């Protein structure tokens, strides 16, 4: 089983994380804090840390909320690379709002700096608020994905433009490199082009690993062609299974082995000694925001909910009338929790309106969830979003990882020092020869 850590803005996945007691409210700008968080994940043998990006932060209610993303993903990973030894370093880089030569250079430099631990999450960007940072609009899906295909092909060509054995650096003979093994690529497509070469020798893993995040048919096709890992989002085993199968089938249609692509859905965690303690932590974290979500819970359950009864369970009549919304895949879980007799506040504190499945309870519950999905063929691993990073990463490492290890589901130690070794990804240098 593969495990990644989501390092967004650094505070944690919950909007209230920056205000939690014990959290340094200024740690948004602290590279030391990011390093410590990555080191905590490395102690737990996580295969990688994952940094989403817009690029740049999308608009948040800055009066009360921290921006969702990191100051700068590449700078952060450079800092982390110097203070860690094994953990993979994966950053999101947009194929729409970058030039391939710039990204090729940055990611390969990171790969060399980290001795073969870099991964590039190649996404096309989809928000108009991101496009506005570049004075542009989001292009059509056809143009975004057309450019993405050319972009990745070109980046991999640049990565391979410095031949594997080209660097001689022989002081005696005075030969620095083999000129005929470091060649321009001279690629010009409809969207992007580059002469090259890129003057960076291979890292210990050759070149960075391509990740992708998304779930549309275009995403299946792009990832099936290029990616070794897909960062996904699914609320049910059935959905995750279907997603995983779609990516595997796409890989096969591109002449690859299905096992070369790993599907990794998200999991959010609030780990505590028991459910009540975990719920109380979520209530403290949620603050007023929790109650504001009552309106949304009404829609999910199809019944009226009265804020005056926030600390009472649903009545029998309400439960009989409740119907999970067909339009929200989270509704069935919300209804199940309501039927267990929790108060409205507690139902919300279970994270029933969050972006991924949420574990609010002891480590064993997280391990059970991960085991069930993994054994059902719904996931090759998970990317974990702790509620609050400052103690939530340690809670996962101390309370969940040992259970997974005891059950033989998660490795006891790193297989090697490169991301490729730790993901079990095949050797690759330059563009995939099967393309
Ligand atoms: C789990 C997950 C993570 C994602 N992370 C990012 C991200 O970091 N940055 C980004 O711009 N888009 C991200 N996306 C959005 C996708 O790249 C994609 O643009 C979106 O799903 C819309 O699909 P489409 O582009 O095929 O229309 C993510 C999507 C998913 C499902």
Automatic annotation (TrEMBL):
This is Nitrilotriacetate monooxygenase. Residues 24-378 form the Luciferase-like domain. It holds the Pfam family Bac_luciferase. Coiled coil: none annotated. It comes from the Bacteria. Gene3D superfamilies: Luciferase-like domain. GO terms for molecular function: monooxygenase activity. Belongs to the NtaA/SnaA/DszA monooxygenase family. Keywords: Flavoprotein, FMN, Monooxygenase, Oxidoreductase.
